[in-house]
Amino acid sequence: METITLQVDKRADSGKKVSAALRKAGRMPAVIYGMSASQKLTLDAKAFKKALSGPSGTHVILQLEMGDGKGLHNALLKELQFHPITDQFIHADLLEIDLNKPIRVKLPIVVSGESVGVKVSGGEIRIHARDLHVECMPSVMPRDIKVDISTLDINKIWHLSDLTLPEGIKATDAPEMAIVSCITPKKEEVVAAVVAEGAAPAEGAAAAGAAPAAAGKGAAPAAPGKGAAPAAAGKGAAPAKGGGKEGGKK
Which residue of 40, 112, 209, 237 lies most exposed, with the fewest beta carbons within 10 A? Predict the structure, then answer.
């Protein structure tokens, strides 16, 4: 694991105004835990950002020179706060560690490779766990836990107990914890995908804006609208009231 030395200063004051003044001066407030008592610190903002920009990212051992006559204090990054707009580092929580004792940390799971279940059988990958809690010596702590799913077949699920972790890394999560699976796509998802690609509507479904079908034999006539002209009387049609041969008699 990468080790980087940083010069830090102790601070007594805290608060928004103090923190703002520190940042304006190119410093960043921080707190280190795990000592006999927590200690407020300030770090050089640029040096700290550079320390976390290497290939190991935030998973580095920080050797802090605090000027207290006790030599270097080894620490890990516990939490990092960012500015909501500029995304700059604004505060760090550090955890002092003993290089001769194992530590417990949470590492991200990185899935790689193309599953045989996807390539051959058209399956879909489901990620069930994004992080893994592990115990290891600080010197062998990796940046992440890599999982190659090339041999993961269709309708199979890998649990924590199925993984081969790097040497010196011990998982502390439950062995039966699901990590990743390859499943057969649901029928509804397949149908939805086909429809999304422009499939024709189901048989019998009316197209939007289509003209109404012609009235069939014996179909009831539509009710006449207001002010509509009466239809011509057909053969055998009943005469209108007061009409017919006797209609003009008094």
Answer: 209
Give 69's pLDDT tier (boundaries 50, 70, 90): confident
CA 247 distance to own-chain centroid: 86
C-alpha–C-alpha distance, residues 60 and 57, integer Å? 7
Assess contact for 3 and 141: CB atoms under 8 A: no
Name residues whose C-beta falls within 8 Å of residue 41's C-beta, 6 or more positions apart in sequence.
Answer: 8, 9, 10, 11, 29, 30, 31, 32, 64, 66, 94
Query: Computed from CA positions of residues 238, 244, 249, 250, in that sequence, does the dihedral angle turn out positive or negative?
Result: positive
Nearest-angstrom CA–CA distance, 98 and 74: 7
Distance CA(32)–CA(52), nearest Å, equals: 17
How far the first Cα of the chain sits from its last, in Å, is 120
Q: What is the pTM of this model?
A: 0.66
At 140, phi and psi to the nearest 5? -115, 10
CB 150 within 8 A of CB 126: no
Instruction: Tell me what the mean pLDDT of segment 207-218 comes to.
Output: 44
Two structure tokens written together for 68: 């207290």
